[in-house]
Predict the 3D structure of the following.
Amino acid sequence: MKAKKTNSDVKRSGNSQIGKRNVRTILSVMLTVLFMAAGSLPAFAHCDSYAGPTVKDALKALETNNVNLVLKWIDKKQEGEITSLFKKTYSLRNGDKEVYAIVEKHFLETLVRLHRETEGAPFTGLKPAGSTKKIVQLSDNALKNEDIDGLLEKLNSHIGTSLRKKYEKVVALDKVKDQSVEKGREYVAAYVDYTHSIEALHDILEHGGGHHAH
């Protein structure tokens, strides 16, 4: 016979389910704020990648002879330089292939460099396709497929798993931290990593996602 569940068992089960729901809710809120705070984070290598949206628009502009497709990536004061260079680049499109490849790359580099300047970010050259961080690729795919729910689900799972691992490591090392100096240092390193991760998320929630100069 199955043992009857006591009130305390039911209560613990209910609390467990509520706890899990609360964790998912908190993570969702954190993720939303993280997206809102994107404008206040340092610019990462994305728009300077051959797979990035800036280069894609530039190549499309050259294919269709439409410079307007790239002007959105720069400031109005930069339009003259890009428009002039675009015309020179396009005029060589049907000429010597090796010469055009050099000129095209110069145009792409100039466009991306000027765009990075509008972000207050340095330009260190065009990066190959595939060098963009996985999270940025996922965020772009979410926009392309109009599927933010799928992205949030993956991020929820990743953040939850990461924080749980850090937490469990601290708990395990807490039991042996006084056995030796080495164990103690392992505990401290794990504790600092865990708490700093939580603090980083908390700071974003506290200070919001206002845009700041990079």
Notes: The helical segments are 7-36, 53-64, 68-71, 79-91, 97-119, 134-145, 148-174, 181-207. The radius of gyration is 25 Å. The longest helix spans residues 7-36. Confidence is low (pLDDT under 50) at residues 35-45, 209-214.
